[in-house]
Amino acid sequence: MCGIVAYVGHRDAAPLVLKGLKRLEYRGYDSAGIALLDVEEPGSSGLKVYKKKGKVVDLEHELAGKALQAKIGIGHTRWATHGAPNDVNAHPHESHDRKLAIIHNGIIENYATIKQNLIRKGHVFRSETDSEVLIQFIEDIRKETGSSLEEAVRQALLEVVGAYAIVIISEEDPTQLIAARKGSPLVIGVGENEYFFASDATPIIEYTKDVIYLNDLEIAVVRAGELKVINLDNTQTTPYIQKVEMELEAIEKGGFEHFMLKEIFEQPRSIADSMRGRVRADDGHLQLGGLRDYLDQLAASKRIVIVGCGTSWHAGLVAEYIFEELARIPVEVEYASEFRYRNPIIAERDIVIAISQSGETADTLAAIELAKSKGATIFGVCNVVGSSIARATHAGAYTHAGPEIGVASTKAFTAQVTVLTLMAIAAAQKKGTISETLFRQLLAELERIPALVDKVLQNAEKVKEIAYIFTYAKNFIYLGRGLNFPVALEGALKLKEISYIHAEGYPAAEMKHGPIALIDEDMPVVVIATKDSSYEKVVSNIQEVKARKGRVIAVVTEGDTQIREMVDFVIEIPNVHDILMPLVSVIPLQLLSYYIAVMRGRNVDQPRNLAKSVTVE
């Protein structure tokens, strides 16, 4: 969850690290800190650590007026796991003798046992964190064995259980940074006689496009301008340097008030980018290069299991309907966080599709490993090139949605649904379960989706007006049927994530089985009531809500007059094939949640208690 930034080279480290922390603040914003080593002042006073509860701007205020000259430094923005968010628990953490400092993303599961052993040896701990335990453990090994810092790090990592991405700085060598990863992402930027370390590429791309994605159980050592990578077995490896495609403007707000609003309005482009090179409706072309060698296996599969968390789980629910409707393959959608803690029945001919925006979601990675151990074929659907899920799966497809900085996913959802829809259509065509006519119709309508989404976005002011009326609501219910049921779940999730209003999504038909007891004049009900095969049933559900004085906001197909006459507020969206409706119907729900949250004074890009990438369990 936390954000890691480090630098060694010829630039001033402090401003570079602080700027990087701001770019990574979507990963955690409970506290922030920085450690700097002045090359001109090696020795007892050279390593300086500053940290502060709150956001990176609070750390900047703390640093005002301080001497920050350094060509090497590490920084961290925290999402708390062990220990409350405060100054003491903020990273970096120092060794007992204060000559080493560490930044850490992840969880050391056996930290308590290690800590007790160290206490018996006389170590004193200043914080409640597992991270401080790790750096003191490394210090202890080094002193007891007389080994180098590099070897002490390796020995310590052989003993710890859990997940980590770490960077360590030592007062004794102002040219050295040591980094390692297991289960948490870490990227190394390679410049001219300089190196950058970060949790993802966003702090790096301003300075270099050459990056190394460190593999699990690898240690990277930079010393005197040279990079060496070894694994925990102490075998040196040859790192693969690749070009990162991300552009700097993609991680700037571009004139929008918030990243979330920018990303909502980017969806016409991000959906188009998810299809670029894959779909040509004019000549009936559909090709997913990442699945080329596995398409026969997908079409022949007897069962598909989809795993994901949060918004990705909702995208999986949409895919369940589409795969079963078009390809006639049974689909089960599982919370990745639950999948690994039971004994799921997985057969060798099963296909498991893992969905994750970041490609680093810890629960989803664990589900992948479990399914692989049972012989299943694993497909990945993720956004970040070189991410852990992309490397852990047999095949898959990138969404190509571009960076998503807002913590509440928006364009990630529509990009995931787009790619999963393409996979389902491709499997159905290969299997022969859809006609050529329907195949071409779906491709043609897919090509129209970006323009239709743009049309919905042009009506954002109407949604904003409705949002103002419901700013002070305490509860919401979202209803949908069929493919719009997962959209109702996603709409409710967006609202509670960023506005802190309690909201629940239900299949519309389930309202009579409990939730109808909540309906009164103070309960706003959002109903996705587009003209599809369930239309008349949804009309009946709306009538039931209105009979109990509920206030209804209906998302309807353009030109619908029947529902307009019975509800309080209407948001119109263009008509599209039922299979593709979630790509359009979710847009007004994203806007509604955004405007309500802004009007309530919420920080929509960094909602409380949340972080973008859940890299710990």
From TrEMBL:
Stored NCBIfam families: glmS, PRK00331.1
SUPFAM superfamilies recorded: N-terminal nucleophile aminohydrolases (Ntn hydrolases), SIS domain
Residue ranges of every copy of the Glutamine amidotransferase type-2 domain listed in the record: 2-225
EC number(s) from the headed UniProt entry: 2.6.1.16
Protein name (record): Glutamine--fructose-6-phosphate aminotransferase [isomerizing]
Self-association state and partner proteins as the record states: Homodimer.
Gene name for this UniProt entry: glmS
GO molecular function: carbohydrate derivative binding; glutamine-fructose-6-phosphate transaminase (isomerizing) activity
Swiss-Prot/TrEMBL keywords: Aminotransferase, Cytoplasm, Glutamine amidotransferase, Repeat, Transferase
Catalytic activity: D-fructose 6-phosphate + L-glutamine = D-glucosamine 6-phosphate + L-glutamate
InterPro entries, per database record: GATase_2_dom, GFAT, GFAT_N, GlmS/AgaS_SIS, GlmS/FrlB_SIS, Ntn_hydrolases_N, SIS_dom, SIS_dom_sf
Major localisation: cytoplasm
GO biological process, one term: UDP-N-acetylglucosamine metabolic process
Biological role: Catalyzes the first step in hexosamine metabolism, converting fructose-6P into glucosamine-6P using glutamine as a nitrogen source.
Keyword Disulfide bond: no
Gene Ontology cellular component terms for the protein in this record: cytosol
SIS domain: residues covered: 294-433, 466-607
Classification via PROSITE patterns: GATASE_TYPE_2, SIS
Gene3D superfamilies per the UniProt record, alphabetical: Glucose-6-phosphate isomerase like protein, domain 1 (3.40.50.10490), Glutamine Phosphoribosylpyrophosphate, subunit 1, domain 1 (3.60.20.10)
Location in the cell: Cytoplasm
Taxonomic lineage from the root: Bacteria, Pseudomonadati, Bacteroidota, Cytophagia, Cytophagales
